[in-house]
């Protein structure tokens, strides 16, 4: 993926990731932020660079690792793809809370709930992915609740 980046972009990624050759296969680990003042600005840039570079990956499942949040991945690998019996054994809590009065992008609190680019604007791609996840989860609940009602009535 580094090969798809401009030299300055690749240098930023190399500054923040360390190659672990002992891992099999070798992997890059994000270095600790060590209290740097502009960590969130750097994080957002790294996220955007990796997301853009991931478009060169042919494997959609690998590309997806750079496109979705950890929460999104947990929902996909948990409740959205497990069978009913696996879900009943695993148990899962899912909280969805709409934010009634969203902050402005330049408000520091906005970063707690939204992906913000350079402290100036909300990340539209991230917002679209979140909305898609909400739709998937809502459909899952409707489908599962309907299945539960049918099972209860037939027993």
Descriptive overview:
This protein has 155 residues and is mainly alpha-helical. The chain folds into 2 domains: 1-67, no CATH class; 69-114 and 127-155, no CATH class. Helix content is 51%, strand content 8%. It is built from 6 helices and 4 strands. It has helices at 7-16, 39-53, 60-67, 70-77, 84-90, 124-154, and strands at 17-20, 27-30, 116-117, 121-122. It has a two-stranded antiparallel sheet.
Set out the fold topology.
Elements: H1 7-16, E1 17-20, E2 27-30, H2 39-53, H3 60-67, H4 70-77, H5 84-90, E3 116-117, E4 121-122, H6 124-154
Antiparallel strand pairs: 1-2, 3-4
Summarize the model shown.
With 155 residues, the protein is mainly α. It has helices at 7-16, 39-53, 60-67, 70-77, 84-90, 124-154, and strands spanning 17-20, 27-30, 116-117, 121-122.
Q: Please state the average pLDDT score.
A: 81
Oligomer: single chain
Low-confidence stretches: none
Number of domain modules: 2
Share of helix among residues?
Answer: 40-55%
Structural class by sheet pairing and helices: mainly alpha
Q: H/E series, N to C?
A: HEEHHHHEEH
Gross geometry:
globular
Give Rg in angstroms: 19 Å
């Amino acid at each position: 993926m580094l090969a798809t980046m401009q030299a300055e972009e690749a240098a930023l990624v190399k500054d923040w990731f360390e190659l672990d050759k002992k891992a099999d296969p070798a992997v890059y680990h994000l270095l600790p932020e060590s209290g740097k003042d502009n960590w969130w600005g750097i994080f957002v840039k790294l996220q955007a660079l990796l997301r853009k570079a991931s478009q060169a990956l042919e494997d959609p499942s690998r590309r997806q690792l750079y496109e979705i949040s950890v929460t999104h991945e947990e929902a996909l690998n948990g409740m959205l793809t497990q069978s009913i019996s696996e879900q009943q054994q695993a148990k899962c809590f899912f909280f969805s809370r709409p934010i009634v009065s969203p902050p402005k992008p330049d408000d520091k609190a906005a970063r707690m709930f939204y992906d913000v680019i350079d402290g100036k604007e909300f990340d539209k791609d991230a917002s679209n992915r979140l909305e898609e996840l909400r739709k998937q989860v809502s459909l899952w609940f409707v489908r599962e609740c309907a299945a539960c009602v049918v099972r209860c009535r037939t027993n």
